[in-house]
Automatic annotation (TrEMBL):
Family: Belongs to the gamma-glutamyltransferase family.
Pfam families according to UniProt: G_glu_transpept
EC number(s) reported in the record: 2.3.2.2, 3.4.19.13
Gene name of the record: ggt
Organism per entry: Pseudomonas lutea
InterPro entries reported for this sequence: GGT_bact, GGT_CS, GGT_lsub, GGT_peptidase, GGT_ssub_C, Ntn_hydrolases_N
Extent of the signal sequence: 1-24
Protein name as annotated: Glutathione hydrolase proenzyme
Length: 575
Protein backbone atom coordinates (compact mmCIF):
# COMPACT_ATOMS: atom_id res chain seq x y z
CA UNK A 1 0.00 0.00 0.00
CA UNK A 2 2.84 2.32 0.83
CA UNK A 3 4.66 1.54 -2.40
CA UNK A 4 1.98 2.88 -4.69
CA UNK A 5 2.02 6.50 -3.59
CA UNK A 6 5.81 6.32 -3.66
CA UNK A 7 5.76 5.01 -7.26
CA UNK A 8 3.20 7.60 -8.18
CA UNK A 9 5.30 10.29 -6.66
CA UNK A 10 8.37 9.00 -8.52
CA UNK A 11 6.42 9.12 -11.73
CA UNK A 12 5.19 12.60 -10.91
CA UNK A 13 8.74 13.70 -10.23
CA UNK A 14 9.93 12.19 -13.50
CA UNK A 15 7.11 13.90 -15.35
CA UNK A 16 7.84 17.18 -13.66
CA UNK A 17 11.49 16.85 -14.58
CA UNK A 18 10.63 16.11 -18.20
CA UNK A 19 8.30 19.08 -18.38
CA UNK A 20 10.71 21.32 -16.57
CA UNK A 21 13.41 20.47 -19.11
CA UNK A 22 11.15 21.96 -21.75
CA UNK A 23 10.15 25.08 -19.84
CA UNK A 24 12.56 25.70 -17.01
CA UNK A 25 10.70 28.35 -15.08
CA UNK A 26 7.82 29.75 -17.06
CA UNK A 27 4.58 28.88 -18.74
CA UNK A 28 5.02 28.12 -22.43
CA UNK A 29 4.95 31.14 -24.71
CA UNK A 30 1.79 31.71 -26.79
CA UNK A 31 2.25 29.80 -30.05
CA UNK A 32 0.67 30.36 -33.46
CA UNK A 33 1.04 29.42 -37.11
CA UNK A 34 0.28 32.64 -38.95
CA UNK A 35 1.30 35.64 -36.92
CA UNK A 36 1.68 37.00 -33.41
CA UNK A 37 0.77 40.17 -31.55
CA UNK A 38 1.95 41.07 -28.05
CA UNK A 39 0.66 44.28 -26.46
CA UNK A 40 0.13 45.64 -22.98
CA UNK A 41 -3.71 45.52 -23.24
CA UNK A 42 -5.64 42.43 -24.24
CA UNK A 43 -8.28 44.25 -26.33
CA UNK A 44 -5.56 45.96 -28.35
CA UNK A 45 -3.91 42.59 -28.95
CA UNK A 46 -7.23 41.31 -30.36
CA UNK A 47 -7.46 44.36 -32.64
CA UNK A 48 -4.00 43.53 -34.03
CA UNK A 49 -4.77 39.83 -34.51
CA UNK A 50 -8.05 40.68 -36.30
CA UNK A 51 -6.16 42.87 -38.77
CA UNK A 52 -3.66 40.06 -39.45
CA UNK A 53 -6.48 37.51 -39.83
CA UNK A 54 -8.21 39.71 -42.38
CA UNK A 55 -5.06 39.74 -44.52
CA UNK A 56 -3.44 42.97 -43.31
CA UNK A 57 0.30 43.05 -42.80
CA UNK A 58 2.24 43.72 -39.60
CA UNK A 59 2.33 47.48 -40.26
CA UNK A 60 -1.45 47.63 -40.74
CA UNK A 61 -1.81 45.76 -37.46
CA UNK A 62 0.71 48.03 -35.73
CA UNK A 63 -1.19 51.15 -36.75
CA UNK A 64 -4.53 49.66 -35.68
CA UNK A 65 -2.97 48.69 -32.34
CA UNK A 66 -1.41 52.15 -31.95
CA UNK A 67 -4.82 53.81 -32.27
CA UNK A 68 -6.55 51.16 -30.14
CA UNK A 69 -4.08 51.49 -27.25
CA UNK A 70 -4.81 55.23 -27.16
CA UNK A 71 -8.32 54.17 -26.13
CA UNK A 72 -7.88 51.03 -24.03
CA UNK A 73 -4.50 51.85 -22.44
CA UNK A 74 -4.81 55.60 -21.93
CA UNK A 75 -1.97 55.79 -19.40
CA UNK A 76 0.58 55.33 -22.17
CA UNK A 77 -1.16 54.51 -25.44
CA UNK A 78 -1.70 57.87 -27.03
CA UNK A 79 -2.46 60.39 -29.71
CA UNK A 80 -0.88 63.20 -27.68
CA UNK A 81 2.57 61.68 -27.26
CA UNK A 82 5.22 60.20 -29.49
CA UNK A 83 7.42 57.21 -30.12
CA UNK A 84 9.37 55.01 -32.45
CA UNK A 85 8.63 52.19 -34.88
CA UNK A 86 11.30 49.76 -36.07
CA UNK A 87 10.26 47.84 -39.17
CA UNK A 88 11.93 44.79 -40.71
CA UNK A 89 10.17 43.76 -43.90
CA UNK A 90 10.14 40.20 -45.17
CA UNK A 91 11.99 41.33 -48.32
CA UNK A 92 14.97 42.43 -46.22
CA UNK A 93 14.28 46.20 -46.16
CA UNK A 94 14.41 47.77 -42.73
CA UNK A 95 13.62 51.22 -41.49
CA UNK A 96 12.90 53.32 -38.44
CA UNK A 97 10.16 55.89 -37.98
CA UNK A 98 10.83 58.62 -35.44
CA UNK A 99 7.62 60.26 -34.30
CA UNK A 100 9.08 61.50 -31.05
CA UNK A 101 7.78 64.78 -29.61
CA UNK A 102 9.68 68.00 -30.33
CA UNK A 103 10.25 71.07 -28.18
CA UNK A 104 7.92 73.91 -29.16
CA UNK A 105 9.44 76.83 -31.07
CA UNK A 106 9.18 79.05 -28.01
CA UNK A 107 11.18 76.59 -25.84
CA UNK A 108 14.47 77.73 -24.31
CA UNK A 109 17.36 75.91 -22.67
CA UNK A 110 16.55 77.38 -19.24
CA UNK A 111 12.79 77.21 -19.33
CA UNK A 112 12.55 74.95 -16.27
CA UNK A 113 14.94 76.98 -14.09
CA UNK A 114 14.03 79.71 -11.62
CA UNK A 115 15.78 83.09 -11.53
CA UNK A 116 18.59 81.61 -9.42
CA UNK A 117 19.21 78.89 -11.97
CA UNK A 118 17.63 76.07 -9.95
CA UNK A 119 15.30 73.50 -11.48
CA UNK A 120 11.67 74.27 -10.55
CA UNK A 121 10.17 70.97 -9.33
CA UNK A 122 7.50 69.42 -11.60
CA UNK A 123 7.59 72.22 -14.19
CA UNK A 124 8.98 69.84 -16.85
CA UNK A 125 6.64 67.00 -15.91
CA UNK A 126 3.25 68.40 -14.92
CA UNK A 127 0.96 70.80 -16.76
CA UNK A 128 1.00 72.30 -20.23
CA UNK A 129 4.55 73.69 -20.09
CA UNK A 130 5.80 70.07 -19.90
CA UNK A 131 4.18 69.13 -23.19
CA UNK A 132 6.25 68.42 -26.32
CA UNK A 133 4.68 68.73 -29.78
CA UNK A 134 2.97 65.34 -30.28
CA UNK A 135 4.12 63.00 -33.05
CA UNK A 136 2.06 59.81 -32.78
CA UNK A 137 -0.61 60.60 -35.40
CA UNK A 138 2.00 61.72 -37.91
CA UNK A 139 3.98 58.52 -37.27
CA UNK A 140 0.98 56.20 -37.61
CA UNK A 141 -0.11 57.91 -40.81
CA UNK A 142 3.33 57.72 -42.41
CA UNK A 143 3.71 54.06 -41.44
CA UNK A 144 0.34 53.17 -42.95
CA UNK A 145 0.71 55.14 -46.17
CA UNK A 146 4.25 53.94 -46.86
CA UNK A 147 4.36 50.38 -45.54
CA UNK A 148 0.73 49.40 -44.87
CA UNK A 149 -1.81 47.91 -47.25
CA UNK A 150 -5.13 48.80 -45.63
CA UNK A 151 -7.28 51.91 -45.76
CA UNK A 152 -6.95 54.35 -42.90
CA UNK A 153 -10.64 54.14 -42.00
CA UNK A 154 -10.35 50.38 -41.70
CA UNK A 155 -7.46 50.39 -39.22
CA UNK A 156 -8.90 53.20 -37.08
CA UNK A 157 -12.41 51.71 -36.94
CA UNK A 158 -11.77 49.36 -34.00
CA UNK A 159 -10.38 52.25 -31.92
CA UNK A 160 -13.40 54.42 -32.74
CA UNK A 161 -15.73 51.63 -31.71
CA UNK A 162 -13.90 51.02 -28.42
CA UNK A 163 -13.99 54.75 -27.63
CA UNK A 164 -17.59 55.34 -28.66
CA UNK A 165 -19.23 52.22 -27.25
CA UNK A 166 -16.77 51.83 -24.40
CA UNK A 167 -15.12 48.73 -23.02
CA UNK A 168 -15.46 46.85 -19.76
CA UNK A 169 -12.74 47.53 -17.23
CA UNK A 170 -10.85 44.60 -15.78
CA UNK A 171 -8.64 44.57 -12.71
CA UNK A 172 -5.50 45.55 -14.63
CA UNK A 173 -7.23 48.53 -16.24
CA UNK A 174 -8.59 49.69 -12.89
CA UNK A 175 -5.15 49.30 -11.27
CA UNK A 176 -3.62 51.50 -13.94
CA UNK A 177 -6.32 54.18 -13.74
CA UNK A 178 -5.97 54.06 -9.96
CA UNK A 179 -2.39 55.33 -10.23
CA UNK A 180 -3.72 58.66 -11.48
CA UNK A 181 -6.85 59.29 -9.37
CA UNK A 182 -5.32 62.46 -7.90
CA UNK A 183 -4.43 63.79 -11.36
CA UNK A 184 -7.98 63.09 -12.52
CA UNK A 185 -9.37 64.93 -9.52
CA UNK A 186 -7.04 67.86 -10.16
CA UNK A 187 -8.36 68.18 -13.72
CA UNK A 188 -12.06 67.71 -12.97
CA UNK A 189 -13.20 69.46 -16.18
CA UNK A 190 -11.40 67.14 -18.61
CA UNK A 191 -9.64 64.05 -17.18
CA UNK A 192 -12.03 63.86 -14.22
CA UNK A 193 -15.16 63.77 -16.38
CA UNK A 194 -13.85 60.84 -18.40
CA UNK A 195 -11.86 58.75 -15.94
CA UNK A 196 -13.87 59.25 -12.72
CA UNK A 197 -17.45 58.35 -11.94
CA UNK A 198 -19.00 61.30 -10.07
CA UNK A 199 -15.57 62.10 -8.71
CA UNK A 200 -14.79 58.53 -7.64
CA UNK A 201 -12.41 55.96 -9.23
CA UNK A 202 -13.91 53.60 -11.81
CA UNK A 203 -14.38 49.98 -10.76
CA UNK A 204 -13.99 46.52 -12.28
CA UNK A 205 -16.98 45.88 -14.54
CA UNK A 206 -17.61 49.59 -15.28
CA UNK A 207 -17.67 50.66 -18.92
CA UNK A 208 -15.19 53.34 -19.95
CA UNK A 209 -16.68 55.44 -22.75
CA UNK A 210 -14.59 58.21 -24.40
CA UNK A 211 -16.92 60.16 -26.71
CA UNK A 212 -14.56 63.09 -27.32
CA UNK A 213 -11.73 60.75 -28.20
CA UNK A 214 -14.05 58.95 -30.62
CA UNK A 215 -14.76 62.30 -32.32
CA UNK A 216 -11.05 63.03 -32.63
CA UNK A 217 -10.37 59.55 -34.03
CA UNK A 218 -13.16 60.06 -36.59
CA UNK A 219 -11.58 63.35 -37.65
CA UNK A 220 -8.24 61.56 -38.15
CA UNK A 221 -9.97 58.70 -39.91
CA UNK A 222 -11.47 61.18 -42.40
CA UNK A 223 -8.54 63.58 -42.87
CA UNK A 224 -5.38 61.74 -41.82
CA UNK A 225 -2.69 63.86 -40.12
CA UNK A 226 -4.61 67.03 -41.00
CA UNK A 227 -7.39 65.80 -38.75
CA UNK A 228 -5.02 66.21 -35.81
CA UNK A 229 -2.49 68.89 -36.79
CA UNK A 230 -5.05 71.24 -38.38
CA UNK A 231 -8.69 72.20 -37.80
CA UNK A 232 -10.62 71.98 -34.55
CA UNK A 233 -8.42 69.35 -32.89
CA UNK A 234 -5.30 71.48 -33.48
CA UNK A 235 -7.13 74.56 -32.24
CA UNK A 236 -8.12 72.72 -29.05
CA UNK A 237 -4.49 71.70 -28.45
CA UNK A 238 -3.26 75.28 -28.94
CA UNK A 239 -6.07 76.89 -26.93
CA UNK A 240 -5.63 74.45 -24.03
CA UNK A 241 -1.89 75.02 -24.08
CA UNK A 242 -2.30 78.77 -23.91
CA UNK A 243 -4.96 78.58 -21.21
CA UNK A 244 -2.63 76.32 -19.18
CA UNK A 245 0.49 78.56 -19.55
CA UNK A 246 1.96 76.26 -22.20
CA UNK A 247 3.74 77.43 -25.35
CA UNK A 248 2.50 75.21 -28.19
CA UNK A 249 1.25 77.18 -31.20
CA UNK A 250 -0.29 76.27 -34.55
CA UNK A 251 3.15 76.85 -36.12
CA UNK A 252 4.52 73.98 -33.99
CA UNK A 253 1.78 71.67 -35.20
CA UNK A 254 2.19 72.81 -38.83
CA UNK A 255 5.88 71.94 -38.93
CA UNK A 256 5.69 68.55 -37.20
CA UNK A 257 7.01 65.77 -39.41
CA UNK A 258 7.92 62.18 -38.71
CA UNK A 259 11.55 61.45 -39.56
CA UNK A 260 12.47 58.25 -41.34
CA UNK A 261 15.93 57.26 -40.18
CA UNK A 262 18.36 54.40 -40.68
CA UNK A 263 18.20 52.08 -37.66
CA UNK A 264 21.27 51.35 -35.52
CA UNK A 265 22.66 47.93 -36.40
CA UNK A 266 25.23 45.60 -34.88
CA UNK A 267 26.10 41.92 -34.73
CA UNK A 268 26.15 39.79 -31.61
CA UNK A 269 27.32 36.18 -31.73
CA UNK A 270 25.95 35.58 -35.21
CA UNK A 271 22.71 37.54 -34.76
CA UNK A 272 22.01 40.92 -36.28
CA UNK A 273 20.44 43.57 -34.06
CA UNK A 274 18.30 46.33 -35.62
CA UNK A 275 17.35 48.99 -33.11
CA UNK A 276 16.57 52.63 -32.37
CA UNK A 277 18.98 55.41 -33.51
CA UNK A 278 19.16 58.92 -31.97
CA UNK A 279 17.03 60.69 -30.87
CA UNK A 280 16.86 57.41 -28.98
CA UNK A 281 19.91 56.28 -27.10
CA UNK A 282 18.54 52.72 -27.07
CA UNK A 283 20.18 51.13 -30.09
CA UNK A 284 23.57 52.74 -29.48
CA UNK A 285 23.69 51.70 -25.83
CA UNK A 286 22.45 48.16 -26.54
CA UNK A 287 25.06 47.71 -29.27
CA UNK A 288 27.84 49.28 -27.21
CA UNK A 289 27.10 46.86 -24.35
CA UNK A 290 26.87 43.89 -26.73
CA UNK A 291 30.21 44.81 -28.31
CA UNK A 292 31.81 44.81 -24.87
CA UNK A 293 30.16 41.52 -23.81
CA UNK A 294 31.02 39.70 -27.00
CA UNK A 295 34.64 39.60 -25.82
CA UNK A 296 33.71 37.59 -22.72
CA UNK A 297 32.63 33.90 -22.64
CA UNK A 298 29.24 34.76 -21.20
CA UNK A 299 27.62 31.39 -21.81
CA UNK A 300 30.48 29.55 -20.15
CA UNK A 301 30.44 31.91 -17.16
CA UNK A 302 26.79 31.01 -16.72
CA UNK A 303 23.52 32.80 -16.15
CA UNK A 304 23.77 35.25 -13.24
CA UNK A 305 27.12 33.95 -12.07
CA UNK A 306 29.07 36.57 -10.13
CA UNK A 307 31.59 36.94 -12.95
CA UNK A 308 28.94 37.13 -15.68
CA UNK A 309 26.90 39.69 -13.76
CA UNK A 310 30.00 41.73 -13.06
CA UNK A 311 30.80 42.04 -16.76
CA UNK A 312 27.21 42.87 -17.64
CA UNK A 313 26.94 45.53 -14.91
CA UNK A 314 30.27 47.11 -15.86
CA UNK A 315 29.39 47.14 -19.55
CA UNK A 316 26.15 48.93 -18.66
CA UNK A 317 27.98 51.44 -16.46
CA UNK A 318 30.38 52.39 -19.25
CA UNK A 319 27.74 52.57 -21.97
CA UNK A 320 25.42 54.81 -19.92
CA UNK A 321 28.22 57.36 -19.38
CA UNK A 322 28.40 57.72 -23.14
CA UNK A 323 24.62 57.84 -23.45
CA UNK A 324 24.28 60.65 -20.96
CA UNK A 325 27.22 62.63 -22.21
CA UNK A 326 27.18 62.48 -25.98
CA UNK A 327 23.82 61.58 -27.43
CA UNK A 328 21.05 63.88 -28.57
CA UNK A 329 18.76 64.77 -31.46
CA UNK A 330 20.75 64.13 -34.67
CA UNK A 331 19.48 67.37 -36.25
CA UNK A 332 21.16 69.32 -33.45
CA UNK A 333 24.23 67.40 -32.27
CA UNK A 334 26.79 65.23 -33.96
CA UNK A 335 26.35 61.83 -32.33
CA UNK A 336 29.69 59.97 -32.29
CA UNK A 337 28.03 56.69 -33.27
CA UNK A 338 30.92 55.35 -35.36
CA UNK A 339 33.23 55.79 -32.41
CA UNK A 340 30.85 54.41 -29.77
CA UNK A 341 30.15 51.28 -31.82
CA UNK A 342 33.71 50.69 -32.92
CA UNK A 343 34.98 47.27 -31.85
CA UNK A 344 38.36 48.75 -30.90
CA UNK A 345 36.56 51.12 -28.56
CA UNK A 346 34.75 48.12 -27.02
CA UNK A 347 38.13 46.46 -26.53
CA UNK A 348 39.41 49.59 -24.74
CA UNK A 349 36.37 49.57 -22.47
CA UNK A 350 36.94 45.88 -21.72
CA UNK A 351 40.53 46.69 -20.85
CA UNK A 352 39.28 49.32 -18.40
CA UNK A 353 36.99 46.79 -16.69
CA UNK A 354 38.85 44.94 -13.96
CA UNK A 355 37.73 41.31 -13.69
CA UNK A 356 36.99 41.44 -9.98
CA UNK A 357 36.58 45.07 -9.09
CA UNK A 358 33.51 47.23 -9.62
CA UNK A 359 34.06 50.44 -11.51
CA UNK A 360 33.47 53.65 -9.56
CA UNK A 361 30.91 55.66 -11.52
CA UNK A 362 32.23 58.99 -10.21
CA UNK A 363 35.62 58.18 -11.76
CA UNK A 364 34.26 56.93 -15.05
CA UNK A 365 33.34 60.07 -16.90
CA UNK A 366 33.52 61.90 -20.14
CA UNK A 367 37.04 63.15 -20.60
CA UNK A 368 38.52 60.28 -18.57
CA UNK A 369 39.98 57.57 -20.84
CA UNK A 370 38.67 55.53 -22.52
CA UNK A 371 35.66 57.87 -22.56
CA UNK A 372 36.16 61.04 -24.53
CA UNK A 373 36.27 64.59 -23.43
CA UNK A 374 7.48 55.70 -15.63
CA UNK A 375 5.52 55.47 -18.64
CA UNK A 376 5.28 54.03 -21.91
CA UNK A 377 4.07 51.01 -23.77
CA UNK A 378 5.63 48.62 -26.23
CA UNK A 379 4.11 46.17 -28.69
CA UNK A 380 5.57 43.60 -31.04
CA UNK A 381 3.95 42.13 -34.16
CA UNK A 382 4.98 39.63 -36.84
CA UNK A 383 2.76 38.61 -39.75
CA UNK A 384 2.59 35.41 -41.79
CA UNK A 385 4.94 36.81 -44.44
CA UNK A 386 7.64 37.56 -41.85
CA UNK A 387 7.18 41.35 -41.76
CA UNK A 388 8.00 42.51 -38.25
CA UNK A 389 7.16 45.70 -36.38
CA UNK A 390 8.44 46.81 -33.00
CA UNK A 391 6.77 49.93 -31.54
CA UNK A 392 7.42 51.83 -28.33
CA UNK A 393 5.37 54.99 -27.79
CA UNK A 394 4.67 57.08 -24.78
CA UNK A 395 3.22 60.02 -22.92
CA UNK A 396 6.37 59.76 -20.70
CA UNK A 397 4.73 59.59 -17.24
CA UNK A 398 1.56 57.54 -16.87
CA UNK A 399 -1.11 59.88 -18.25
CA UNK A 400 1.62 62.27 -19.40
CA UNK A 401 1.54 65.82 -18.07
CA UNK A 402 -1.84 65.13 -16.47
CA UNK A 403 -3.59 67.51 -18.85
CA UNK A 404 -5.73 67.19 -21.96
CA UNK A 405 -6.51 69.17 -25.06
CA UNK A 406 -10.02 70.17 -23.97
CA UNK A 407 -12.94 68.44 -25.70
CA UNK A 408 -10.71 66.17 -27.81
CA UNK A 409 -10.15 63.32 -25.36
CA UNK A 410 -6.44 63.65 -26.13
CA UNK A 411 -4.11 63.30 -23.12
CA UNK A 412 -0.90 65.29 -23.53
CA UNK A 413 2.65 64.11 -22.87
CA UNK A 414 5.33 65.45 -20.51
CA UNK A 415 8.20 64.46 -22.79
CA UNK A 416 10.02 67.76 -22.14
CA UNK A 417 11.25 66.16 -18.90
CA UNK A 418 13.51 63.90 -20.99
CA UNK A 419 15.65 66.92 -21.90
CA UNK A 420 18.49 68.08 -19.66
CA UNK A 421 16.71 70.76 -17.58
CA UNK A 422 20.09 71.55 -16.05
CA UNK A 423 23.42 69.80 -16.52
CA UNK A 424 24.15 67.60 -13.50
CA UNK A 425 20.57 67.54 -12.15
CA UNK A 426 18.78 64.18 -12.51
CA UNK A 427 15.48 63.90 -14.39
CA UNK A 428 12.59 61.66 -13.29
CA UNK A 429 14.57 58.54 -14.22
CA UNK A 430 17.61 59.68 -12.25
CA UNK A 431 19.47 60.30 -15.51
CA UNK A 432 22.15 62.94 -15.22
CA UNK A 433 22.60 64.28 -18.72
CA UNK A 434 24.71 66.79 -20.59
CA UNK A 435 24.64 69.62 -23.11
CA UNK A 436 23.97 67.34 -26.09
CA UNK A 437 20.45 66.93 -24.74
CA UNK A 438 19.83 70.59 -23.85
CA UNK A 439 16.44 72.06 -24.77
CA UNK A 440 16.22 73.89 -28.11
CA UNK A 441 13.24 74.88 -30.28
CA UNK A 442 12.17 72.06 -32.58
CA UNK A 443 14.54 69.57 -30.95
CA UNK A 444 13.52 66.12 -29.71
CA UNK A 445 14.59 65.08 -26.21
CA UNK A 446 16.90 62.09 -25.95
CA UNK A 447 14.97 58.87 -25.40
CA UNK A 448 15.74 55.41 -24.09
CA UNK A 449 12.96 53.73 -26.03
CA UNK A 450 14.44 50.77 -27.89
CA UNK A 451 12.04 48.99 -30.22
CA UNK A 452 14.34 46.26 -31.51
CA UNK A 453 14.32 43.45 -34.05
CA UNK A 454 16.91 40.67 -34.22
CA UNK A 455 17.53 39.02 -37.57
CA UNK A 456 19.54 36.11 -38.92
CA UNK A 457 20.40 36.02 -42.62
CA UNK A 458 18.06 38.96 -43.17
CA UNK A 459 15.02 37.24 -41.63
CA UNK A 460 13.40 38.27 -38.37
CA UNK A 461 14.04 35.94 -35.45
CA UNK A 462 13.03 38.16 -32.56
CA UNK A 463 11.00 41.32 -31.88
CA UNK A 464 11.45 42.96 -28.50
CA UNK A 465 10.93 46.15 -26.49
CA UNK A 466 9.48 47.59 -23.31
CA UNK A 467 8.52 50.72 -21.38
CA UNK A 468 10.48 51.69 -18.28
CA UNK A 469 12.36 54.96 -18.79
CA UNK A 470 16.10 54.51 -18.50
CA UNK A 471 15.54 50.79 -17.70
CA UNK A 472 14.14 50.20 -21.18
CA UNK A 473 17.62 49.69 -22.60
CA UNK A 474 18.82 47.17 -20.05
CA UNK A 475 15.55 45.19 -19.98
CA UNK A 476 15.53 44.92 -23.77
CA UNK A 477 19.21 43.97 -23.77
CA UNK A 478 18.88 41.36 -21.00
CA UNK A 479 15.99 39.69 -22.82
CA UNK A 480 18.15 39.32 -25.94
CA UNK A 481 21.10 38.05 -23.88
CA UNK A 482 18.85 35.55 -22.09
CA UNK A 483 17.83 34.14 -25.46
CA UNK A 484 21.18 34.33 -27.27
CA UNK A 485 23.69 33.62 -24.48
CA UNK A 486 21.67 31.39 -22.15
CA UNK A 487 19.31 29.55 -24.51
CA UNK A 488 16.13 30.54 -22.69
CA UNK A 489 12.85 30.32 -24.49
CA UNK A 490 11.16 33.64 -25.13
CA UNK A 491 8.83 33.48 -22.11
CA UNK A 492 11.65 32.46 -19.77
CA UNK A 493 13.76 35.30 -21.13
CA UNK A 494 10.99 37.80 -20.41
CA UNK A 495 10.17 36.38 -16.97
CA UNK A 496 13.78 36.13 -15.74
CA UNK A 497 14.56 38.63 -12.96
CA UNK A 498 16.39 41.72 -14.20
CA UNK A 499 18.98 44.16 -12.93
CA UNK A 500 19.82 47.67 -14.03
CA UNK A 501 22.92 49.85 -13.92
CA UNK A 502 22.95 53.34 -15.49
CA UNK A 503 26.30 54.82 -14.42
CA UNK A 504 24.72 57.31 -11.97
CA UNK A 505 23.56 56.49 -9.37
CA UNK A 506 26.42 54.16 -8.51
CA UNK A 507 24.26 51.25 -7.25
CA UNK A 508 22.86 48.50 -9.46
CA UNK A 509 19.12 47.88 -9.03
CA UNK A 510 18.08 44.27 -8.53
CA UNK A 511 14.69 42.72 -9.02
CA UNK A 512 13.70 40.25 -6.31
CA UNK A 513 15.53 36.90 -6.80
CA UNK A 514 17.85 38.40 -9.46
CA UNK A 515 20.96 37.44 -7.48
CA UNK A 516 21.46 34.78 -4.83
CA UNK A 517 22.78 35.93 -1.44
CA UNK A 518 26.18 34.28 -1.93
CA UNK A 519 26.60 35.73 -5.43
CA UNK A 520 25.66 39.12 -4.05
CA UNK A 521 28.30 38.74 -1.34
CA UNK A 522 30.97 37.96 -3.93
CA UNK A 523 29.96 40.99 -5.98
CA UNK A 524 29.93 43.22 -2.90
CA UNK A 525 33.43 42.03 -2.06
CA UNK A 526 34.43 43.29 -5.53
CA UNK A 527 33.01 46.72 -4.68
CA UNK A 528 29.52 46.50 -6.14
CA UNK A 529 26.64 48.21 -4.38
CA UNK A 530 23.02 47.28 -4.86
CA UNK A 531 19.59 48.82 -4.50
CA UNK A 532 16.11 47.32 -4.61
CA UNK A 533 13.81 46.85 -7.57
CA UNK A 534 12.37 49.82 -9.44
CA UNK A 535 8.99 49.99 -11.19
CA UNK A 536 8.41 46.90 -13.30
CA UNK A 537 8.86 47.01 -17.06
CA UNK A 538 6.25 45.45 -19.33
CA UNK A 539 8.14 43.66 -22.04
CA UNK A 540 6.51 42.38 -25.23
CA UNK A 541 8.56 39.90 -27.24
CA UNK A 542 8.17 37.46 -30.12
CA UNK A 543 10.46 34.68 -31.31
CA UNK A 544 10.09 33.34 -34.83
CA UNK A 545 10.72 29.68 -35.72
CA UNK A 546 10.70 28.01 -32.31
CA UNK A 547 10.17 28.91 -28.64
CA UNK A 548 13.96 29.25 -28.25
CA UNK A 549 16.78 29.94 -30.71
CA UNK A 550 17.84 26.74 -32.36
CA UNK A 551 14.92 24.93 -30.69
CA UNK A 552 12.25 22.78 -32.29
CA UNK A 553 8.92 24.28 -33.34
CA UNK A 554 5.86 23.05 -31.45
CA UNK A 555 3.67 21.44 -34.12
CA UNK A 556 3.16 23.76 -37.06
CA UNK A 557 3.57 26.90 -34.99
CA UNK A 558 6.09 29.43 -36.26
CA UNK A 559 5.49 32.35 -33.88
CA UNK A 560 6.01 32.41 -30.11
CA UNK A 561 4.85 35.40 -28.07
CA UNK A 562 5.75 36.42 -24.52
CA UNK A 563 3.79 38.96 -22.54
CA UNK A 564 5.48 40.27 -19.39
CA UNK A 565 3.76 38.85 -16.27
CA UNK A 566 4.95 41.85 -14.25
CA UNK A 567 1.78 43.71 -15.20
CA UNK A 568 -1.72 42.36 -15.47
CA UNK A 569 -3.24 43.90 -18.60
CA UNK A 570 -1.26 42.49 -21.54
CA UNK A 571 -1.77 39.55 -23.87
CA UNK A 572 0.25 37.62 -26.42
CA UNK A 573 -1.95 36.05 -29.05
CA UNK A 574 -1.57 34.72 -32.54
CA UNK A 575 -3.70 32.79 -34.97
O1 LIG B 1 11.66 58.23 -24.08
C1 LIG B 1 11.97 57.84 -22.98
O2 LIG B 1 13.04 57.32 -22.74
C2 LIG B 1 10.98 57.98 -21.83
N1 LIG B 1 10.13 59.12 -22.07
C3 LIG B 1 10.21 56.72 -21.70
C4 LIG B 1 9.26 56.76 -20.55
C5 LIG B 1 8.91 55.43 -20.03
O3 LIG B 1 9.29 54.41 -20.52
C6 LIG B 1 8.09 55.40 -18.80
N2 LIG B 1 7.63 54.06 -18.55
N3 LIG B 1 7.57 53.38 -17.65
Amino acid sequence: MKFKPFATSLLATALTLTISCVHAASVAPAAAENGMVVTAQHLATHVGVDVLKSGGNAVDAAVAVGYALAVVYPAAGNLGGGGFMTIQLADGRKTFLDFREKAPLAATANMYLDKDGNVVPDLSSKGHLAVGVPGTVSGMELALSKYGTRKRAEVIAPAIKLAEQGFTLEQGDVDLLGTATDQFKADAKDLGTIFLDKGQPLKVGDTLVQKDLAKTLKEISGKGSDGFYKGWVAKAIVDSSQAGKGIITQADLDRYQTRELAPIECDYRGYHVVSAPPPSSGGVVICEIMNILEGYPMQELGYHSAQGLHYQIEAMRHAYVDRNSYLGDPDFVKNPIGHLLDRDYAAKLRAAIEPQKAGISQNIKPGVAPHEGNNTTHYSIVDKWGNAVSVTYTLNDWFGAGVMASSTGVILNDEMDDFTSKVGVPNMYGLIQGEANAIAPGKSPLSSMSPTIVTKDGKTVMVVGTPGGSRIITATLLTMLNVIDYGMNIQEAVDAPRFHQQWMPEATNLETFAVSPDTRKILESWGHTFAGPQDANHLAAILVGAPSLGGEPVGKNRFYGANDPRRNTGLSLGY
